[in-house]
Amino acid sequence: MDAYKKAGVDINAGYKLVDDIKNLSKNSALGSFGGLFPLELGTYQNPVLVSGTDGVGTKLLIAIKANLHKTIGIDLVAMCVNDVLAQGAKPLFFLDYLGVGHLDNDKAKDIVSGVVEGVSQAQAKLVGGETAEMPDMYTDGHYDLAGFAVGIADKAKLLSAKNLREGDVLLGLASNGLHSNGFSLVRDILFKQHDYSLDETLPGCELDLKHELLRPTKIYVKSVLPLIDKGKITAIAHITGGGLPENVARILPDNLSAEFNYGSWKVPAIMENLQRIGQLSFDDLKHTFNLGLGMVVAVHPDVAEDVKAELEKSGETVYRVGKLVSGHQEVIIRKDQQ
Amino acid sequence: MDAYKKAGVDINAGYKLVDDIKNLSKNSALGSFGGLFPLELGTYQNPVLVSGTDGVGTKLLIAIKANLHKTIGIDLVAMCVNDVLAQGAKPLFFLDYLGVGHLDNDKAKDIVSGVVEGVSQAQAKLVGGETAEMPDMYTDGHYDLAGFAVGIADKAKLLSAKNLREGDVLLGLASNGLHSNGFSLVRDILFKQHDYSLDETLPGCELDLKHELLRPTKIYVKSVLPLIDKGKITAIAHITGGGLPENVARILPDNLSAEFNYGSWKVPAIMENLQRIGQLSFDDLKHTFNLGLGMVVAVHPDVAEDVKAELEKSGETVYRVGKLVSGHQEVIIRKDQQ
Fold it and tell me: Integer distance in angstroms from the first to the last C-alpha of chain A?
């Protein structure tokens, strides 16, 4: 049993990690051929499974550079479960895939502890995962992460563009900074065009760059799901790559456009810094970063204040950021209020 | 919208790929926030979702070296759905994650066409996926693949070690060569310790090395699932990393061991070559490669011949490879019949 280890794959280190993950996740069934999730269908008439897969992009390279691996797993879960939530579904369970060049158990434990934290925030269950040791695949210290979330919704309650009306209010839920998108541009601006140190703190930012850039992506399940259940939310856009323009466009029906009033919410200082340092056009900015809104929720006007208040009670920072107008699936960010 | 592209991420190339994948998979709903799968629960009393995630290890590096990317997606699906099947569940749907340094649409299309083929062989549905372009993450031409499968079973029909008895027969289903495990050792032996060309054909092998090594992993769903449905199969081990010893041990109860008669099935020529060239001990060989058996099925003796005949009718090559004996979860490979 030595040849495989000499070739760079340590199966026993893998087994040790599985034990560690079992303890972290408190799911002793991990490690069998497939993860089990009993379905409780009591209240579902026509259950639909809603699933999503995602990674965290090159935010990983910041975690690697900063040697801080405990929160990147939260980002991973967030990217997946917020997508599931955006369809109106309740996340049920999650699996993670970790690809490494050489298995470093302490680092892997840090990474998976973030996954466990994220799954807890999403009120879901970690049912499985794979840690793949792949010598020669990743350069030293690099790893990749992929996540998979499955949720459930009643077919009739899936959120749909069809239910949107002219005049519907757009509520923006504050992001926790950059979340997990645009990091190739971030790295290009800060570390290739310029030579910033991760220990620097940019003007207006509370944290030094390594902690600012690694702020974990917000998971909106706890605050938003109860309002979906009550039928108070009509549509949701999870703001990821492509920013407001592309992600909000995905929820619009043919006959409506979305109009945002720039200035009606707070744009994080890190993005203003990146725009300034990288001399980015506003077009670049809005198509790459979330501009401070991690999720945009469309609601009928008569429940807008109610929904806003409930979300705030759950701890969200919520802005009334715009409305739906007659149009053709355009996303307009009006800057005249600045 | 140019800054992000200059930083190495081409969002438009990504959109083009999504369109290509929609066409390949004939699933026009791909590209929304989450993949939808309506559950039809007519016949399930207590439905349990069974999920699995996996990658294909450094078999990827062979595909990259050979510049042949059309079948690696089959391996990906196989690694996941065979795990789901091994629990007694019917695979329902699949999602894939493809991480690349720079998005090459033609290569990505080849990769995903393999995924689509694998999903079809597994009688499942591709409901989503993610292609992540990550500059600086992967060295030139490298990519990683992760897959995620969800299946369903009735709780009472999940395969379980509890139903195994002394004297149960072990049927081995022929693998299609190496499948997706042990490739770091394969690469070490053939391309580091020695300098074989991918165009060479090793003694006893039908194909040259690139095609021999890239034979896609068998997907056993079509042949095995009908027998699970009929209640004729008691337990299944999907033979992956760790070989027969570790994967068969996972299905054994405390009081039983598995005894294999080496020589009762055909070991693929590629493995004999690897043992010879790499001077591997039998211990190394059996803990790293599948030895020619991609799946081991435990059945009660009175249905063994019946199950074997049905599997053969479905196109499988099936061997009676051993039996369960009283013991303590040991996997014994008896070589005295050689």
Answer: 67
